[in-house]
Design a protein that fits this description.
Blueprint lengths: L13 H20 L3 E2 L5 E3 H8 L9 E3 L5 E4 L4 H10 L8 E5 L2 E3 L11 E10 L4 H17 L7 E7 H11 L3 H11 L7 H11 L3 H11 L6 H6 L3 H19 L6 E3 L13 E7 L8 E5 L3 H4 L7 E7 H10 L2 H5 L5 E7 L5 H13 L4 E3 L6 H10 L2 E7 L7 E6 L5 E5 H4 L2
Parallel strand pairs: 1-5, 8-9, 13-14, 13-15
Antiparallel strand pairs: 2-4, 3-4, 5-7, 6-7, 7-12, 8-10, 10-11, 11-12, 15-16, 16-17
Helix pairs in contact: 1-4, 4-10, 5-10, 6-7
The chain binds one RNA strand of 77 nucleotides through helix 2 and helix 15.
Length: 425
RNA sequence: GUGAGAGUAGCUCAGCUGGUCAGAGCACUGGAUUGUGGAUCCAGGGGUCGCGGGUUCAAAUCCCGUCUCUCACCCCA
């Protein structure tokens, strides 16, 4: 009888687990070399924690439960609220800047589809306490550092960068009222996701003035910063926002990763809480949903009852990334199976006891060693050895009577006789 | 919540105008090979064709229902 895993969840068989570990180990390694420290929190929190940031409606998208004490809890759909809570608790004790990363297992009760599951892993990196685009540049650099470390190039992925602040003041200049901004962001976010003529038809619903609508169309298609004041006019606010983005570009150039990046005014991100630089990473053909994204959220800690502290960060899930790496053939190439140092075989079953003894001794010296449980023929044992990825195979035969055995290099096929005592040193 | 497609062996699928239709490849196990692996060859295990009902002499095949999955919309932290 088949018992598939719960909708939207995955079983990780050893090959899948190897894949998952490879991805997560890569995230951790890159985080550490970029100066981030790892943290984690509980896998469930008070339901209220998540509603605080995303509104009451979010409850429908969560797996929630009431415990026996009547507490309303939810499995975490993101780790940012937990991080905000933890940082707020120790804000005065933590050395600044705070550079933290985490790879939480997250849960969202949404309908699964390509690149989106109900249980997944997400890499988060955040810098707290730095009100400077240098921190945004660090976040983007770290993101690209990982993606290029697994073999993705500027021709595989694009980092699309924009600024909530720039968009806000440019739209205000065009004549959009502040109250209209939030609903308008929702539409602008679709600019690159729906056909151009569909977008153009939808725009007048929110921007009846055709001159303003025309300017928004121009703004959305801008590819350089200098076009923005030409389209939307200029003032001190616009200037300041442009200066910040220009500096971000300079920094990313100095860091040697700007070739991965583009200025994309239509990148908005769904969430209302972003306050400055925002970015999303897409594969080049843009047939998949975003691989990751992030931005500046200077008000979040305050929203969670803490002081006003600048913050910027990024999140990247394992689902879309996994699909992309698979498509590019980067997983197959870089994954190595469980590598044994030695597989110990016997040429005759009378030496089976020796196999067990020597295997155990090798293991105690720290070597990865395995052997066949059944006294099968030597050729079968060698077959197992190569199936298990053994680097060398030790063959125990009559030589063992004088303390010697055969060591066979599984890659080259070469073999030599050596003293048992040498091997165990 | 809405719409479309698909469910046959562990995996990928063929068979689907009803009648050797229970199959192939890969994987697995054993053998050829009782001191030499990755190859090849041979053999074997494994499926009440998602489930339930209907039509029929006869259903994997046609009809209805149901469940599950996938993809898209909504949403996307």
């Amino acid at each position: 009888m088949k018992r598939p895993p719960v909708k939207g969840t995955r079983d990780f068989y050893p090959p899948d687990m190897a894949r998952r570990n490879w991805i997560i180990d890569g995230w951790k390694k890159v985080s550490l070399r970029n100066g981030f420290e790892e943290y984690d929190g509980p896998i469930f929190e008070y339901l209220k924690m998540f509603q605080l940031k995303s509104g009451d409606e979010i409850a429908e998208q969560l797996f929630s439960l009431t415990d026996r004490g009547g507490r309303e809890l939810a499995l975490r759909p993101e780790i940012t609220p937990t991080m905000a809570r933890m940082i707020n608790q120790q804000i005065n004790a933590l050395p600044k800047p705070i550079k933290w990363f985490s790879v939480p297992r997250l849960f969202r009760a949404e309908r699964p589809q390509k690149g989106r599951l109900r249980e997944f892993f997400q890499w988060n990196v955040d810098i707290i306490g730095v009100d400077d685009v240098l921190a945004d540049a660090e976040i983007i650099f770290t993101t690209i550092d990982y993606l290029s470390s697994v073999g993705l190039t500027p021709r595989d992925i694009r980092v699309k960068i924009s600024s909530r602040k720039l968009l806000a003041c440019a739209l205000t200049n065009i004549g959009i009222r502040e109250k209209q901004l939030d609903p308008l962001y929702g539409l602008l976010d679709k600019y690159n996701k729906i056909p151009a003529d569909t977008f153009e038809k939808m725009l007048p619903d929110q921007v009846p003035d055709s001159a303003a609508a025309k300017k928004i169309m121009d703004l959305m298609s801008a590819t350089t910063l200098s076009e923005v004041p030409e389209i939307a006019g200029t003032n001190a606010e616009v200037d300041a926002a442009i200066q910040k983005l220009a500096r971000l570009k300079d920094l990313l150039e100095q860091m040697g990763v700007w070739q991965f990046c583009d200025f994309y005014p239509s990148i908005v991100r769904g969430l209302a809480y972003y306050t400055g630089v925002v970015f999303e990473v897409y594969e080049f053909a843009q047939e998949l949903r975003a691989i990751g994204g992030g931005g500046r959220y200077d008000n979040l800690l305050q929203d969670f009852g803490g002081p006003s502290v600048a913050a910027t960060g990024m999140g990247m899930g394992d689902c879309v990334l996994g699909i992309l790496l698979e498509e590019k053939g980067l997983l197959e190439k870089q994954l190595q199976k469980c590598q044994l140092d030695y597989f110990i075989a016997c040429a005759d079953k009378q030496y089976f006891q020796k196999v067990i003894e020597i295997t155990a001794k090798l293991r105690r010296t720290g070597k990865a060693a395995n052997f066949a449980y059944k006294p099968i023929g030597l050729s079968k044992q060698l077959k197992q050895a190569s199936a298990q990825g053994a680097k060398e195979c030790i063959i125990i035969g009559s030589e063992i009577e004088s303390g010697r055995l055969v060591v066979k290099d599984m890659a080259t096929g070469e073999q030599k006789t050596t003293e048992l005592d040498n091997l165990l040193k």
